[in-house]
From TrEMBL:
Taxonomic superkingdom: Bacteria
Protein name: DUF3822 domain-containing protein
InterPro entries per the UniProt record, alphabetical: DUF3822, EF_Hand_1_Ca_BS
Signal peptide: none
CDD domains: ASKHA_ATPase_BT3980-like (cd24013)
């Protein structure tokens, strides 16, 4: 059983009866890692089914080193997270250090230069990763704290780990839904203190950015700002939401007062979910479920 401390609190733990700790070689492990939230999902690859989901709230984390140390402390006691037996492990980091480059222009040796144009990249404390979005012909360049990557290198030496950025599963999910329209469509992923806004048109990514937010009014400001800049009409254009908000939340109520056609999204299709996961809201955990399509 995972212990709790003054930094981490488990808020969701779902395990399907079919989960077998002796069969990890047939399972994929997906982890979404952020300063205020860590989520763990498990997929049975033989049945193409999510069979486990855990969600942890994180607080009082002020530095990347502290966050990595607490992550290591908590999950070192987990019965299987640091097991070498997984079929595949994917970890998505949630930070603002990312950018996109058309794959025709991308040069691997220049990845640090591309990223430095968009954010304050610290080569001493961060490691660069890339992910190619084949469907949109773009490369996502991002960084992860070396403190975090070193934990995995120590815990699972020699085990290949696929790093992603939070935006990778979000984009992969939107592409997987297969919604193609000549109209611009705005999609949003809402978290406790951040907002990811994406715009798709004709199956192509037109806009993607993360914004830091503290109040419902902050979230609304960025919704309105991006809609204005992208020439979207709050009276007519549809906005689809995923993430950590509820139907009766102050933010959703505020959004509906300014955006007429706002709705919650659903889970990605073409993968099944334990009946215990089916009981959760459809728009929750896209950061974890979307990793299945990366």
């Amino acid at each position: 059983m995972v212990k709790e401390n003054n930094h981490y609190r488990q808020v969701v733990k779902i395990t399907d009866e079919s989960f077998d700790p002796q069969q990890l070689h047939a399972y994929n492990l997906y982890i979404s890692y952020g300063r205020d939230r860590v989520r763990v999902g498990v997929v049975d690859t033989d049945r193409n089914k999510f069979i486990s989901l855990e969600d942890y709230q994180v607080s009082h984390i002020y530095t990347p080193l502290q966050g990595a140390q607490v992550f290591n402390e908590v999950f070192s006691g987990h019965p299987y997270v640091f097991s070498p037996d997984w079929h595949q492990i994917k970890l998505a980091v949630n930070n603002h250090n990312f950018t996109f480059i058309p794959d025709t222009l991308f040069e691997a040796d220049a990845a640090a230069d591309y990223l430095s144009l968009n954010c304050d990249f610290d080569a001493d404390h961060e490691k660069i990763f890339t992910y190619k979005h084949t469907s949109i012909e773009a490369v996502n360049i991002f960084s992860a704290d070396k403190y975090l990557t070193q934990i995995w290198e120590r815990q699972l030496p020699g085990k290949e780990l696929k790093y992603l950025h939070l935006t990778c599963p979000l984009i992969a999910s939107l592409l997987h839904y297969g919604e193609r329209t000549s109209e611009k469509r705005l999609y949003a992923y809402v978290q406790n203190k951040s907002l990811c806004l994406l715009i798709m048109q004709e199956g192509k990514l037109e806009f993607c950015n993360l914004f830091q937010c503290s109040t419902p009014e902050d979230f609304l400001y960025f919704f309105v700002l991006v809609m204005q800049e992208q020439k979207l009409n709050p009276e007519h254009d549809r906005v689809t939401l995923w993430g950590d908000l509820e139907h009766d939340s102050a933010l959703f109520t505020l959004l509906r007062s300014y955006i007429r056609n706002v709705q919650f999204g659903s889970r990605p299709p073409d993968v099944s979910y334990s009946y215990k996961i089916e009981d959760l809201f459809q728009h929750h955990y896209l950061d974890v479920f979307g990793m299945h399509f990366c």
